[in-house]
Design goal:
The chain is mainly alpha-helical. It has one domain. It is built from 7 helices and 2 strands, in the order αααβαβααα. It has a two-stranded antiparallel ribbon. It is globular and about 45 Å long.
């Protein structure tokens, strides 16, 4: 029987962050990308950390933009028996994110970031899970965004262009 999982907290955090980002005139893609890098690094360094039993969840992280950016990686290396399944899911997840980004106007800088591992959602939301790696825990993405909201906004502001 399929288990149903509810996403709690993250939509509200993202809604609040997006509301503040929209206030920044001329926000640039560079600021969004630098913010995504900050979030990724924070999830690796500050608890709750990304759980890492096999490393596949961490490998499934992606950041993409509608406009090509040099060094943007769209593939991932997965370990163990599930590698093929995870690679297919990764490609499909990125295609889905690209489709979502295409809904924004051409003038709007936009990125998508997240995890493509089929179990990422469950691991992120499972408040009762016990993780092997010290410091790992649920809500790792949500916590990193909440913790860094001011830094994210400052990065985007610092990269904003004044349009005349």
């Amino acid at each position: 029987m399929a288990q149903q999982i509810r996403l709690e907290g993250l939509p509200k955090v993202l809604k609040n962050l997006n509301k503040e980002i929209e206030k920044i005139k001329g926000g640039t893609l560079k600021g969004l990308i630098r913010s995504a890098i900050l979030i990724r690094r924070d999830m690796e360094a500050t608890p709750p950390l990304i759980p890492r039993d096999t490393g596949n969840l961490r490998a499934s992280f992606y950041t993409i933009s509608r406009k090509p950016v040099s060094g943007q990686v769209r593939s991932a290396s997965f370990k163990k028996d599930e590698g093929g399944k995870l690679a297919q899911g990764h490609a499909a997840g990125i295609q889905k994110a690209e489709a979502e980004l295409s809904k924004f106007g051409q003038d709007v800088p936009a990125i998508a970031l997240g995890f493509t591992a089929y179990y990422a959602f469950k691991v992120h939301e499972d408040m009762m899970a016990h993780f092997k790696h010290p410091g790992s825990g649920p809500k790792f993405l949500e916590a990193a965004i909440k913790r860094n909201e001011k830094k994210i906004l400052d990065i985007i502001k610092s990269e904003a262009r004044i349009r005349r």
